Amino acid sequence: MTVLVTGATGTVGRQVVRHLLGRGAKVRALTRDPAAAVLPAGVEVVAGDLTDAGTLEPAFDGVTAVHLINFGGGYRPLPNGEEIVDLAVRAGVRRASVLVGWQEGTLEAAVRAGALEWTFLNPVQFMANFLVDWGGPLRAGDLVREPYGDRKSPPVDESDIGAVAATVLTEDGHAGESYHLTGPEVLTARQMVAIIGEATGRSLRFEELTPDQVRQEWSIPGRRPDLSVFRVLGQAASSGAADPVELLLQLYGTPNEYGTTLTDHVERVTGRPPRTYAEWAREHAHHFRAA
Ligand SMILES: NC(=O)c1ccc[n+]([C@@H]2O[C@H](COP(=O)([O-])OP(=O)(O)OC[C@H]3O[C@@H](n4cnc5c(N)ncnc54)[C@H](OP(=O)(O)O)[C@@H]3O)[C@@H](O)[C@H]2O)c1
What we know:
Layout: E1 2-5, H1 11-22, E2 26-31, E3 44-47, H2 57-60, E4 63-69, H3 81-91, E5 95-99, H4 106-113, E6 117-123, H5 129-140, E7 143-147, E8 152-153, H6 158-170, E9 177-181, E10 187-188, H7 189-200, E11 205-209, H8 211-218, H9 228-238, H10 244-253, H11 257-260, H12 265-270, H13 277-283
Parallel strand pairs: 1-2, 1-4, 2-3, 4-5, 5-6, 6-9, 7-11
Antiparallel strand pairs: 8-10
Helix pairs in contact: 1-6, 3-4, 7-13, 9-10
The structure holds NADP nicotinamide-adenine-dinucleotide phosphate.
NADP nicotinamide-adenine-dinucleotide phosphate binds at residues 6-13, 30-33, 37, 49-51, 69-73, 75, 99, 101-102, 123, 125-126, 129, 228, 232.
């Protein structure tokens, strides 16, 4: 079987590719820029843009299962989900995993209504976000400065998302399921910084900023940190919603059930417990060591 992976050069997509290869699947990877893709040997890399269905026909040729992302450039939901699903069905694709996220677009509805055997993957915050958020400050110093240090989340290892996707794409029994993918434990931001400290053998500090400090400091051009959440919130802001800093304060400052809910879905699908933050931090410790 050939499995097409969209978003294959992304955080989750690279893990989907890795786990599919581990299962012996033949993998085709879609990217807008094959020259920059840098994917493992054995992966067939094809050019295509999800926002332009005319470029996708060769990518679907001979494919029996597809991993789909629901966004195009800049995390905007895809406007042409129906076209993509039609193309897949006409090409003979049977099965799809769909990485869903922040905002539902046209793809989810088209997948639900179409003839593919679908499985939705709805992960919480990826552990990889902390490479973006804290890699810079912790290589440059020993301090994370953020609001709401006691905010809770059950972050999931992106490798587990890839493992779930590879399983549902290659095994029966997951059609029509929506999996809510979490890690094995609820952690606060402070606890995660401490875990990175243990993994790196460093004494790291967390300084809690008040909302007013955040408003003052992060509104100065060049002073706003490059947090992963701003990538998505910036998208919301550019579509007419509130300022990204206010959105972040609202998001971090409002406890919600996703922050404290653990599921067994990773284990149910893969047969093993989700990876812990400590395991992830040990594996990525080199990103958090002083430069
Ligand atoms: N970060 C989190 O904590 C979190 C939590 C839950 C859900 N999510 C969801 O996860 C998704 C982000 O996944 P990720 O972090 O793995 O993404 P990512 O690392 O930012 O990678 C983006 C991928 O999308 C591909 N892509 C973008 N526009 C494309 C287009 N027009 N045509 C074809 N490919 C395109 C890129 O491929 P090329 O550049 O190679 O073309 C790249 O492989 C979002 O939907 C988000 O809402 C994120």
